[in-house]
Amino acid sequence: MTRDLRMRWLTPALALLLAVGLSACNTFTPNTIFGAHSEFGHSVDVLTRKLLYLGLLVFVLVEALLLFILVKFRDKDGNREAKQIHGNTTLEIGWTLVPAVILAFIAVPTIKTIFETQARAVPNALQVEVIGHQWWWEFRYPQYGVVTANELYLPVGRTANFALTTKDVIHSFWVPQLNGKRDLISNHTNYIWFTPDSAFAWNGFCAEYCGTSHANMRFKVFTVAPAEFEAWAAHQKTNAVGSTPPANAIAADSGKQAGGPVVTAAAPATGTTTPGNAKAPAPPATPVMLVSDTASSTYPRAKLPEWVIPKTPTPAALTFDANVEGDAARGATLFKTAPCIACHTIRGVPTAAGIVGPNLTHVGSRTTIAGGLYPNDLKHLQLWIKNAPAMKPGSLMPLFGKAEKGDTPGVYTDQQIADLAAYLSSLK
Ligand code: CUA
After folding, report:
1. Residue 183 alpha carbon to ligand 1 centre in Å
2. What span, in angstroms and rounded, lies between the C-alpha atoms of 411 and 354?
3. In the chain, % of residues over pLDDT 70
4. Whose CA is nearest to atom 1 of ligand 1?
5. Using CA atoms, how far apart are residues 339 and 398, in angstroms rounded to an integer?
6. From ligand 1's centre to the CA of 9, what distance in Å?
7. 130 CA distance to ligand 1 centroid (A)?
8. Residues 122-146, mean pLDDT to the nearest whole number
9. Could you tell me where the DSSP H helices lie in 163-209?
10. Is the pTM of this model over 0.85?
11. What pLDDT, on the 0 to 100 scale, is given for residue 278?
12. Measured between alpha carbons, how far is 327 from 346 in angstroms, rounded to an integer?
């Protein structure tokens, strides 16, 4: 290779190496496993580092020995036969014992960590049932009577014990910064528990290939102060907006706006908005805690880290009439008899009791739709209802767009879809 040719390769290679190196220093990596925020994560982190450093030590020793032997015993005077050591008992015992000792050094901390992380959770843990579906997550809080989807709220400092099962194929529950992975398998409940140590918003994933939209089976975890969690859970337990007498709603609403974060939300904080008036009260200027005191006691959207908001592009061929404006009241009426009710539950709407799809009681309070694939706003919700299979490959939710499916029963015009989307958005 000529000097010129070498330089031609060397410069870009060095530049690339430098770019990769520098970007690693400068980028915030939200999904890293090297930044544990729970005791489970810490145990695994300590083990990983211990094994990494032990492995490094063995590597350095072996390579040093190898280099030493290569140099010292290199053939200096031609083709002599090397000394034959076959059948040397001392050597054979030696190189059997050394790996056994090394394995013992690996086994002791590993088994210790396995026992730690497989132990039963503390008795007063928050119980969460995690049910995997193709391709979304169902979360149930049996102690609170709350059922939700794709977004977990967890109190900081309280152990959360997850009971993992699946409705269909094998999935795997994984929040890189909070815990290790654990599979959701058929006919058996797996458990995993951890205690979040700080308040934040985290990304969660399905970590086991489970079909076409495996990569689109995501969820969010919001770790919040215990009082905020109680407020959130109390609100999630309430009926959907518009399904209870408005007097209740006004009382709860005024109670919630008084003086910052809600601790007393165990009161019947029923629907705080009515269809067609889906505007949530603005959060206070200086929130004491992370969770806003908006109607739904949820993580304030303005404070969501930018990497929590999905940026999935929508299919170019799928369009929606931009001039159409939805009406939540019309949407509420339409929903009661729409095919949606076969698969979705909305607490407080007697006809809507389906359990195949996500519970939509407070769907408007969630930050994402479609298993964390799109942000939860009117535009994405409209496209989703119109043609879910185009938005998410393999989606079990059928398409409802009249323009897409033709004039058959159970399809909707853009106006009707806009009404449905307005209604769903109002379910804070
Ligand atoms: Cu569920 Cu992959």
Report:
1. 10
2. 19
3. 83
4. 171
5. 10
6. 42
7. 13
8. 95
9. none
10. no
11. 32
12. 18
- As separate numbers, helices (DSSP H) first and strands (DSSP E) second, the chain gives 10, 12
- The band of 256, judged by pLDDT with boundaries at 50, 70 and 90, is very low
Closest CA to 359 of 172, 129, 153, 139: 139
Tens-digit pLDDT profile for residues 151-189: 999 999 999 999 999 999 999 999 999 987 899 999 999
Q: What is the number of the ligand 1 atom nearest to the C-alpha of 210?
A: 2
C-alpha torsion sign, points 303, 306, 310, 316: positive
The CA distance from 119 to 295, in Å, is 38
**Cis status, amide bond into 135, omega within 30 of 0:** yes
Q: Among the atoms of ligand 1, which is closest to the Cα of residue 184?
A: 1
Best CA proximity match to 256, nearest among 289, 222, 281:
281
Structure tokens at 390: 């185009």
Residue 121 to residue 124: CA distance in whole angstroms? 8
Q: What is the mean pLDDT of residues 336-344?
A: 88
Q: What local confidence, expressed as pLDDT, does residue 17 receive? A: 76
Token representation of residue 348: 């407080």
Q: Which atom of ligand 1 is nearest to the CA of 214?
A: 2
Is the predicted pLDDT of residue 317 greater than 80, yes or no? Answer: yes
Residue ranges of E strands in 330-376: 368-369, 374-375
Report the pocket of ligand 1 as residue ranges, CB < 6 Å: 132, 135, 171, 206, 208-210, 214, 217
The DSSP line for 126-138 is EEEEEEEETTEEE
Q: What is the tens place of the pLDDT at every residue in 14-53?
A: 777 777 666 655 567 788 888 889 999 999 999 999 999 9
Place of tokens 């977004």: 151
Of ligand 1's listed atoms, the one at least distance from the Cα of 208 is 2
